[in-house]
Amino acid sequence: xxxxxxxxxxxxxxxxxxxxxxxxxxxxxxxxxxxxxxxxxxxxxxxxxxxxxxxxxxxxxxxxxxxxxxxxxxxxxxxxxxxxxxxxxxxxxxxxxxxxxxxxxxxxxxxxxxxxxxxxxxxxxxxxxxxxxxxxxxxxxxxxxxxxxxxxxxxxxxxxxxxxxxxxxxxxxxxxxxxxxxxxxxxxxxxxxxxxxxxxxxxxxxxxxxxxxxxxxxxxxxxxxxxxxxxxxxxxxxxxxxxxxxxxxxxxxxxxxxxxxxxxxxxxxxxxxxxxxxxxxxxxxxxxxxxxxxxxxxxxxxxxxxxxxxxxxxxxxxxxxxxxxxxxxxxxxxxxxxxxxxxxxxxxxxxxxxxxxxxxxxxxxxxxxxxxxxxxxxxxxxxxxxxxxxxxxxxxxxxxxxxxxxxxxxxxxxxxxxxxxxxxxxxxxxxxxxxxxxxxxxxxxxxxxxxxxxxxxxxxxxxxxxxxxxxxxxxxxxxx
Length: 480
Prior knowledge:
By secondary structure, the chain is α+β, with helices and mostly antiparallel strands. The chain has helices spanning 2-10, 26-40, 52-55, 98-108, 111-130, 164-232, 238-272, 296-306, 308-329, 365-429, 435-469; strands spanning 11-15, 20-24, 95-96, 136-144, 150-158, 282-283, 335-343, 348-356.
């Protein structure tokens, strides 16, 4: 029976006096062409998606001249993490600048591996969206009882097709996922940059605090020697030595406390770099002492245009809008052309068929309503995020301006406090003032230096927050 099936169903056998020949039936030539065409229709067109993010135009912002250098626009975006070779600091490298730390963090932070996986997921969504339906092959055998007890065969091939608008909207909705992923990674880059610079500034601040407390400790030791000399000379009371030593112990306690805070800050910074910094790393930078005034209105405008969270939400809104268009046409009917062949006892029948889906009961009203609701949710999120950006800008600019006032105020008092301490120490050594007066002047001088350093640190943090609101990113964008 198998031999008869092959001979009658697949090949036509002809015989004459000179030859025996098998000829492929004409139907199967058409069938092979149909299969090839169906297979070619599923060829991927997603390769161009690799550069989709790079082709997007950035939102227009203000000219650089409208905003001081403190908040200048980034010159470049960070390339994807999976395209950056891992950078390991030299084994003998222990000193790092801010630009070094940023570069290490952007190359080794483990979160970028997650974003690389997200990009692959976005590309797979496009591949899935552009795929065609597979053809359907139907075969059958009928045993016909009768005079010849013959076997009849039939074969059919159907290929479902969609309207072009359905494929186009589905592809566009899938392509929008990659833009959302790119914006999410960009938002993380802005956050990482801000966190790294804050952690770096904290380490620098703690280092300078230790240096200041060490100077206070050394000064306290010098005062102890002066008091001991005066006690030995009979010009001071023994209790003054005790007071001086208590002040020296307090200064030593401040050094220990500052060292613990420095260790914590170093741990935070090293974690942000993927723990690529050596255990004994040192930072070569100092807290900046010069800060430029800012234009609050220009910051507001730029933040609304370039804040990373707003950009992500706008990309997500575009994705939801395209998904709504996809759902609105997803119920459009598919059509299914086909070809077939029947082999009967005394005839061969060739069949051309055409099927059409009739959307009587389901027009995807639920999917359309869900897509509209999701789009409305994004609109609400954009409004809320916009208000939060306004709040963050106002808070950061107000804090920055206040910190600048503190810097100027304490900077003017520093030299006067230092001179007063030097003068008071001399007068105490000459016996013209008592020890309590010396301690009071010494504490004032130390508090002045400490408050000035704290004002520099506070201004630096507010400066970073302002830069974060306008979306500064990139490993090569080190703030002054």
